[in-house]
Design goal:
Blueprint (H helix, E strand, L loop, with lengths): L4 H10 L12 E4 L12 E4 L1 H11 L2 H11 L3 H18 L7 H14 L10 H8 L7 H14 L7 H22 L8 H18 L13
Antiparallel strand pairs: 1-2
Helix pairs in contact: 2-3, 3-4
Length: 220
């Protein structure tokens, strides 16, 4: 899940999102607590106060903190929620301050049971996990994948001529695709091209001190 996609899903299904007495649009709550599960049966419209109360009763301090910030609660309340959220992350083994081994074991456990935040259906990491190429998985598959990328000159750790050639080839392919599908600059009309070139020339002249950024006043 990313951004407000789940809100669009709810609105497309029901036609609208309710508002409270003050005119504030309702929050969309994930019933099972999994923010990646955007099945319409898992989405429920609730007021911001109801949303806060639900997560508070569940001890989901991270969610409470996010909602509390929108509710503009006091700094003391926000501070208390933040402490509880960090403590829970430490207990769950998900805090970034934990040593590498604990954090990695926790990440692998969450990947295995399907609760990791990277497991959203549109996340590229899902494919990597299934293929065994995700950098957290390690092992033979990951090693073979890295070796193949090095041989092809596409590994991000490569430098020098091989990496430059690889990038140049990718740029040519991208340009060919844009031209064939009329995207990017190829989607512009002749008039738009002229306007773009004119704007670029003016910007260059201003930068070089050959033109003023402020229009001259007309003399009467």
């Amino acid at each position: 899940m990313k951004g407000s996609n789940y809100r669009k899903i709810y609105k497309n299904y029901y036609g609208f999102i309710p508002t409270d007495k003050t005119g504030r649009t309702f929050d969309i709550h994930h019933i099972d607590g999994n923010r990646n599960n955007n099945n319409i049966n898992n989405l429920k419209a609730v007021s911001i106060q109801e949303h806060y109360d639900i997560h508070y009763s569940q001890g989901d301090w991270g969610a409470c903190l996010r909602i509390a910030e929108k509710m503009k609660l006091s700094h003391i309340e926000l501070s208390n929620l933040s402490k509880k959220a960090q403590q829970k992350r430490i207990e769950d083994g998900t805090h970034n301050f934990l040593d590498g081994k604990v954090a990695k074991e926790s990440a692998l456990r969450r990947l295995k049971d399907g609760t990791h935040n990277f497991l959203g259906e549109n996340n590229p990491s899902v494919k990597k996990v299934k293929e065994g190429t995700h950098h957290w998985l390690g092992g033979k598959l990951q090693s073979e994948q890295s070796k193949k990328m090095v041989e092809n000159g596409t590994h991000p750790f490569l430098g020098g001529e091989i990496q430059r050639k690889s990038g140049k080839l990718g740029g040519k392919k991208g340009g060919a695709y844009a031209k064939a599908n009329r995207t990017g600059i190829f989607a512009l009309t002749p008039e738009q091209h002229k306007a773009k070139a004119f704007s670029a020339n003016i910007t260059k002249m201003i930068k070089n001190g050959k033109a003023s950024a402020w229009p001259r006043k007309e003399t009467l």
